[in-house]
Amino acid sequence: MDPLLLSCGAIVYPSKVIPHAKGNILHGLKRSSPGYIDFGEAYFSMVSCGEVKGWKKHLRMSMNLLVPIGSICFHLEAEDGSSAEKVVLGENHYQRLFVPPGVWMAFEGVGQSTNLLLNIASIEHDPTESVTREFSR
């Protein structure tokens, strides 16, 4: 599968799943991976089914997002509002979503139990480098 460039500027990259009898191995991110900018921090976020976190736009942070458990729908919008898209990632759609600075993003739990994302961020968290707004569909 080739990378998918979204009109908002985000990119969906295929991610490797290595089947194993005792539990699959899910590839995350390598320094040589496309979309890798730098390492600032990695964190996990959980979102319950039907709940939405966002909208947020980072001004400097690039994000590499993976969903190893559950299923999450990412709502993405270009900075100028010219395009909006949805991408679902999860156990059955294991891919990596690269979100550059300037893209509005919200995410919604769509899996029935635990929905967990990993963000491998290019910079450490800095509350002054992002802006938020209320979520609307």
Automatic annotation (TrEMBL):
<dbReference type="InterPro" id="IPR014710">
    <property type="entry name" value="RmlC-like_jellyroll"/>
</dbReference>
<dbReference type="InterPro" id="IPR008894">
    <property type="entry name" value="QdtA_cupin_dom"/>
</dbReference>
<dbReference type="InterPro" id="IPR011051">
    <property type="entry name" value="RmlC_Cupin_sf"/>
</dbReference>
<feature type="domain" description="Sugar 3,4-ketoisomerase QdtA cupin">
    <location>
        <begin position="44"/>
        <end position="129"/>
    </location>
</feature>
<dbReference type="Pfam" id="PF05523">
    <property type="entry name" value="FdtA"/>
</dbReference>
<protein>
    <submittedName>
        <fullName>dTDP-4-dehydrorhamnose 3,5-epimerase</fullName>
        <ecNumber>5.1.3.13</ecNumber>
    </submittedName>
</protein>
<dbReference type="GO" id="GO:0008830">
    <property type="term" value="F:dTDP-4-dehydrorhamnose 3,5-epimerase activity"/>
</dbReference>
<keyword id="KW-0413">Isomerase</keyword>
